[in-house]
Amino acid sequence: xxxxxxxxxxxxxxxxxxxxMAFCLWIFITVLIITAIATLAVVGAWMLPETVxxxxxIAGAKRSMTAxxxxxxxxxxxxxxxxxxxxRIRTAVRDPGTFTDLRWxxxxxxxxxxLALALPLWPVGLVVDGVWCGLLHRTPLVLPLIVxxxxxxxxxxxALLKPSPKARLAARVEELAATRADAIAAxxxxxxxxxxxxxxxAQANLVAxxxxxxxxxxxxxxxxxxxxxxxDEAQDQAEKALNELRQVVRGIHPPILTDRxxxxxxxxxxxxxxxxxxxxxxxxxxGSGGEAGSGGGLQVTVEVDRLEDDGLRAPAAVEAAAxxxxxxxxxxxxxxxxxxxxxxxxERLRRGLRVRVGDEGHGGADETSGSGLLxxxxxxxxxxxxxxxxxxxxxxTVIDVLLPCVW
Length: 407
Known about the structure:
Strand order of the largest sheet: 1-2-3-5-4
Helix content: 55-70%
Order of helices and strands: HHHHHHHHHHEHEEHEE
Low-confidence stretches: 276-296
Structural class: alpha+beta
Number of helices: 12
Distance between the termini: 49 Å
Largest sheet: 5 strands, mixed
Shape: elongated
């Protein structure tokens, strides 16, 4: 009986603000009438987009209220009201979301008052269910009806406020356009990075190599010993240029991903962070069970879920993005978090790959303060993935990435 009373009370708490909102919507009819008259008179046409914005906020509050009861978020799909007054009016009138919100408002004038049916059930339910449950030990009959009324109110709100297929399509097109722009920006930044690495690294070493070979050729006849020394230096310079080129190639697509797959590459990366040297992984022996790097550096634990069961691998682009996320996140953890430990979790989902990187540092990660997190988000968005960063002051910092793919 106590559990039933608590559920009924929670349902009533949900229905009270719903009824209050319905009452306020009746008052809001005055604003709608004034807006309609002013728009028809042309003089007050500026009120139309402003009224639509108010309706969007009211509908957003209703979505939040319904999500708090059902536990499921209701998505929004609105076209932005920007530009000149004529463009804003045209958008406000043609946006499918405007019709969706107005349809909900008209219906909420009536079903929003379900509280009027719920309140009389309380005295009846306390008496009837008290006797029915307390004396006869039966299942409550009346008070659960209040919960059903709250469920009915939430179901109607969900159905009415859910964006139309046309609105979802328009929102999806805008999202893909923004994603494409970010992908192009990330691609351009990557090309500039590769060009800079080649110019400052391999190209400079090759120029020095060419100069040393030229000096050695000139000194060969008159001073063979000096020529031999210059050739030795040229050989060292060639090896250095080769290492620079290898680093550039690894930055484009790490060969270890092709050879060992994502799991093996991440475990090698985690092992490299066990080195006490400053920021950057190296190849080393993997720690206990091949799962964590150890030593004086950042200790990284790797957890793998269902990625090694049947040997299936994600597409190369997905593996590269996941590896980049792990590498960048561990770099940030080593540089800024102040934590000696970090964790990496790779999880195979039915329709995607989840990458979760966390540390025990002081938190406070800010995407606007550097290009690391922004670059990660752009790379993930280019694959239609999502990235969530949780880094409250005092920590911990958790980066959760979901990359869609077909296995």
